[in-house]
Amino acid sequence: MLSKCVLVTSLCSLLLVMYGLLITITKIEENRCKLTYMYEYPQFVRIGFAENDQFPAYGLYAYSEGQLAQNARNMLFRGAPVIFIPGNAGSHKQARSLASVALRKGIDNGLRYHLDYFTVDLNEQYSGLYGGVLNYQVDFVRLCIQRVLSSYKSIPGGPTTVILVGHSMGGKIAQAVATSPGMAPLINSIVAISSPMDVPVLSLDHYLQNFYNSVNTEWKQNRTVCSSPGKAARLKVEDDYCLAPEGGSRPLDHILLVTVGGGIRDTMVHDSLTNSIFGDVHAMTYNVPNVWLSVDHQCAVWCLQFVLVMNRFLYSLLDINNKRVANKFIDDKEIRLKNALFYFKNIKSTESADKLVKNDVMYEDWIEDIRRNFQMTFETGLSRTRVQMIPLNFNPLYRYMKAEVVNLDTENWILGCAATEMGRDMRYCSAATPLYNYSSVLPPTENKRQFAQINLHDIKVQNPSWTHLLLKFPKTNEAFKFTVDINNYDDRVLDVQMPKWYSFGQSQLLDDTALGASFYKLRVLGMESSYQTLAINVDVRSCNVDNPFVVANISVPWTEGFTKYSYYYKKNHSVIYVYAPYDKPSGFNSTIDPVAIDLHLNPSCRYSLSYSQSLSVMMARVVQQFGQWVPAHCVAILLLALKHQVSVTPDNEDFKCGKLHTALSRSTPFFIVTASRVFTKMVMMFKVLPQPEQYEFSILISVIIHGASLSLLLMSTAAAWAAIVFCGNFVHKILLKIVCLPIPALSSTIVSCIHKFPMVIGGILMSIALASCGSAALICACIVYFIILTKMYESYLEHFVLKTAQRIALKLFGINIRCRGDQKEKPPKTKDETTEPNPGNQSPEAAVQRQEYDNVHTGLIDINFHLPLFLLLIVISLLNFPSFLTWAKHYTLSPSLKPDASLIPSVIIIGSLSVLWQMNVPRNISGYKLLSGFLYIAAVVCIIYCQISLYRLNFIIALTFVVITIHQLVGLKMKNE
Predict the structure, then answer these.
(1) Phi-psi region of 570 (alpha: psi -120 to 50; beta: other; left: phi over 0)
(2) What is the distance between the alpha carbons of residues 588 and 39, in angstroms, rounded to a whole number?
(3) How many whole angstroms separate alpha carbon 539 and alpha carbon 508?
(4) What is the Rg, in whole angstroms, of the alpha carbon atoms belonging to the chain?
(5) In which order are the strands placed within the sheet that holds 187-193?
(6) How far apart are alpha carbons 528 and 595 in whole angstroms?
(7) What pairing do the DSSP bridges indicate for beta strands 439-442 and 364-368?
(8) Which stretches within 560-652 are classed as H helix?
(9) Cβ–Cβ < 8 Å for 355, 434
(10) Are strands 426-428 and 421-423 parallel, antiparallel or unpaired?
C-alpha cells in the first residue's frame, strides 16, 4: 500500500513539474519588446594585436556602419570606449543593437561626443556550463582592454578608462577582469545584463565553482560592501553590517557596478541570481522606467525599450562639461551613481529640491477646490497655465492624496507653498517649492501618465507654514486630464492572507471599489517563500470610458531592485501575479512589513477584486529555482535502490539482487524527510563537518523534486528494459557493424574484446579519456555497457529456453536432457535441509524480505545488479556532457580538452567498470550489509551537499563504483557458495 502511495505521489509530482516546465516555456508572459532596426549594414572590424596569437579562438572587433567603418579600419576612434562581453554560447554580434543605437545618437550630435563600441569574440564557448574556459576568457578580455585604450594614445587627453557591458556570463567575466593585476584603474563602470553574479546557474564542475569563489573573495577583500535587508540575508550578517575600508578607499570602490535582471521571462538566469552583494544599483527590466516589461535571456541585448535606456545611461556618463569633443567618462562615482539611479530606478536628485519656483500670477489661473475626489479633462488643452490648489487642512481622516496627470510633458508639476498673498479675488503664492521627488511615471511610456502619492498630514508637519499643495499645468494645445483622490488610507488598504499550499480556490476580496477611487493597496500576509504565487483578479464592473486600465506596483520589502510593474489597458479582466524573488530572510518580520501591491485604477470605472493561489506560475517558479536539484535526487534514489537490492537476501541464503523497479518504489518513502531535515540538523551540530547547502526551504519542494526524480527513474528503468529486451539484439548488431573496420582481423579482434575481454575495452576507453576528454570516454562506456547488458539478456534468454525444454521433456517423455554447460547435479538434500522455515516465526520485515527474495528470478540477478550502475553511468555522462561539447568545439585547435573536469571521475569509473565487466558479478560473498550502509550514507550526502553543487556528484558516483568494485574483489565467500 505504501509503495502504491509513493508511486501515485511521484507521478503527480512529475506531472506538476512538466506542467511548470510547459508554462515556463510557452505561457509565462508575452514578449512585448520592440525590435531594434539598423539604418545601415552593420560591420564588425577585426582589431589585431600580437597577444591575440596566444588565443587563436578569440578575437576583438570594433562596431561601425556604412562609410564610418573606414575610420574603424584605420583605427581612428574619437569616442569613449565601451567593450561588450558576450556570455554562455554568446556571439560578439550580440552587441549590434546596443552599438547601432549608440552610433545613431552620436551621429545626431555630429559625433562631437559619442560612444565607440568594441565587442569580444569568445568563440561562443559554453562558459556558463564549463568553467575550464573562464580564466582564458578573463585573460583575453584583459588584453582587449589594454589594446582598446592604446588606440587612443595618439589623441591628446584621450580616454584612460573603459566601460564593460557584459551579458550573461560576460557580466561575471567583467567582474573578474577587475580583479586582475593593474586592471581596476582602467575600468570606469560595469553593467551586467542578465548575469548570474554571485552564484552560478548550474555548478557542473569545480572549475566554475572555484572561479566564482575566487572572484567573490577578491571583491570582498578589495571593495566596501554595506548590507541592507536583502544583502544581509545573502551575507548572513546583521542588517547594519558594513565592510568598512581600512586606511581609505579600497581598490575596487571607484567602479560603478550596475546589475540588471530580465524577470520571469528569463528562464536561463533566475531573477534572484542577477543581484550582487557588491552591486551599487540593481534593477529588473520590469521596473526600469520606460521599459516596464520582462525580457528573456537573449532578448535583453536587442529589446529596443531597454537598449534605449542603456545608451541614455551610458551617454550620461560622458564628461562633456565645457568640451567640444568628449571621449572620457566621468570620474566622480557619486555623479555616476546618481545617473544610474535616475535611469534605472527613477530616483531623482534632491540637490535642487529647496530651490523656489517663481509663479507668474498674471498669466496663471489659481483655482482652489475642496472636493476630495474629482477628475477634469481638457480636450483642447489650456490657453493659460492652471494651478490647482489642494488645501492642507483636510479632515484628519482624509490625509492621503493621490494625484495623477495624463499627457503632460513637464515633470515639475507638483509644488508646495504658503498661499497667503491675495490678488484678483484669489489666493496665491509668488514662489513655491517643487516636490518632483514625489512624482513617478506609470507604464507604459506611450500613455505619458504621471502620479504622486503624498501624506498631507506628514507634509504639513514637515512644512508648518505651507497651506496648499499646487498642481501646476502649463498651457498646452494637446488634450490632457488630471485626477485628485483624497482618501482615508485605512479604507484603501486590504489584507490578503496567503492561501495554504493545497488551496487553489478563488476568494472574493472586494465586491466593488469606491466611487472615484484611483488607488488601493493590498498587503499579502504569509508570503515568505519564493515559490509562493498569488493571482490577483481585477474585473471591471462598470466603466464610463473606453480605457479601464489597471497598473500594479508590486514591492517585496526584503529585496532591492525587484519592485515590479504589471499593467493592462483596455481589458475587462486582468490577472496580476505576485511572488517574491527569493525567500524571506531569517529574522525579517513580514507581518509588520509584508509584500504589498499598489493598484492604480481608472477613477471612472468600478472594479471587483478577488484572489487565488496560482498553480501554473507557482510550478513555473519551482522549475526555474529548484529544477537543478533533480540530478542529485536521481543519484540518491539510485543509491537507495541499489542498497535495497543488495539487502533483500535473507541471512544464510545465496545472494540474489532484487528487482530495480521494486527497489525504486520501496526504498525512498521517508528518506527525503530525514535527509532534508533530520540529517541536516545533525550535520550542523558538528562544526568539523562542512556546512550543508540551502536547507531553509519548504518540505513541499523536496517532495515535489524527489517525486519527479523517482518517476523519471521509473520511466528510465522501463525504457532501459525495453531497449534491452526488444532492441538489444538489433542495436547490438548495428553497434558491431559500426565498430567493424575494413581490416577483417582488427574488426574481429574488437568484437571479440567486447564479448570476451571487457578489460581490454576498459583500456581502450581509458585511452580515449586521456587522449580526448573524460566525457567522451563516459559516453563510449555507456554504449559498451549497453552492449554488455544486451548480451547478458541474450544469455539469460537462451538458458531460460533450454531449461524450459528440459522440464517439458522430463514431464512428457521422462527424459532428462543435459545441456552443455550445465553444472554438475548436487546430491539430494536431507530432510532438515529441505524443510522450509516456519513463516509464523518470521517478523513482518523478514516476511517481506523473503517474498521479495523468492520473486527474484535467478537468471536476472546479473542484470538487476548492473542496471542501477548503468543508470548512474548515464547520469554522470549527462552531468559532464558540457565538457564533451567544449571538447568537440575546440577539437580543431586541440585534440584533447585542457583542463578537463571530467577526466578524473571518468578514469576512476572506467577502471572500476573494467574490473566489474571482467568478473562474474554479483558474487555470493559477505559484506553486503556494510555496502548497503555506505550506499545510504552516500545518498544522504547527495541531498545535503549536492543539490546546488552538482559537480560533487561526480565524486560521489565515482566513489560508489570504487567501493562496489573493492567489495566484489575482496569480499569473503559465503559458506554455501
Answers:
(1) left
(2) 52
(3) 11
(4) 35
(5) 42-47, 59-65, 115-121, 80-85, 162-167, 187-193, 256-261, 281-284
(6) 9
(7) unpaired
(8) 615-626, 630-645
(9) yes
(10) antiparallel
pLDDT confidence of residue 836: 47
Nearest C-alpha neighbor of 756 from the set 732, 778, 788, 729: 788
One-letter amino acid identity for 799? H
pLDDT of residue 848: 56
The pLDDT, as a whole number, for residue 806 is 63
Residues 118 and 325: beta-carbon distance below 8 Å: no
Cell of 647: 539487502
The CA–CA distances, whole Å, from 641 to 471, 645, 849, 950 equal 72, 6, 14, 20
Contacts of 448 (CB under 8 A, 6+ apart): 406, 407, 408, 409
382, β-bridge pairs:
476
Q: Would you state the pLDDT for residue 233?
A: 45
**Residue type, position 787, single letter:** I
Nearest-CA neighbor of 550 among 566, 534, 563?
566
Beta partners for 284?
261
* Phi and psi based region of residue 739 (left: phi greater than 0; alpha: psi -120 to 50; beta: remaining): alpha
Q: Say whether 168 is catalytic.
A: yes
Which triple of cell numbers denotes residue 102? 549608440
Spatial CB neighbours of 530, under 8 Å, sequence gap ≥ 6: 272, 579, 580, 581, 582, 583, 621, 625
Q: Measured between alpha carbons, how far is 739 from 940 in angstroms, rounded to an integer?
A: 40
* CA–CA gap between residue 282 and residue 261 (Å, rounded): 8
Nearest to 451 by CA among 398, 408, 492: 408
| Strand ordering across the sheet containing 605-613 | 507-510, 605-613, 534-543, 573-578
The strand pairing partners of 889, in sequence order, are none
How far apart are alpha carbons 79 and 76 in whole angstroms? 10
Supply the DSSP symbol for 692.
P
What is the four-CA torsion angle of 464, 468, 469, 475, rounded to 10 degrees?
A: -150
Written as nine digits, the cell of 366 is 489659481
Cell of 442: 506609470
| 151 vs 75: CA distance, rounded Å | 7
> Of 168, 189, 529, 711, which residue is the catalytic one?
168
Evaluated on CA atoms 310, 311, 312, 316, the torsion sign reads positive
Across 132-203, where does the E strand assignment appear?
Answer: 162-167, 187-193
- For residue 208, what are the contacts with CB-CB under 8 A and spacing of at least 6? 129, 130, 131, 134, 200, 951
pTM of the model: 0.88
Residue 875 grid coordinates: 547520469
Strand partners, 607: 540
pLDDT (0 to 100) of residue 933:
92
Distance CA 248, CA 332 (A): 16
Q: What averages of pLDDT result for each successive group of 10 residues across the chain (977 residues)? A: 81 93 82 85 92 92 90 89 95 94 88 91 93 94 95 86 96 96 94 94 93 94 71 42 53 94 89 91 91 91 94 92 74 92 83 72 87 90 92 84 90 90 83 89 85 92 92 91 91 93 91 92 93 94 87 91 86 90 86 92 93 93 92 94 86 78 81 75 78 77 91 93 76 55 50 64 90 94 89 75 66 59 45 46 57 62 91 96 92 88 94 90 87 93 91 95 93 62
Task: Note the pLDDT of residue 832.
Answer: 45
Pull the grid cell for residue 555. 514591492
**Measured between alpha carbons, how far is 416 from 388 in angstroms, rounded to an integer?**
11
The span from the CA of 4 to the CA of 24, in Å, is 30
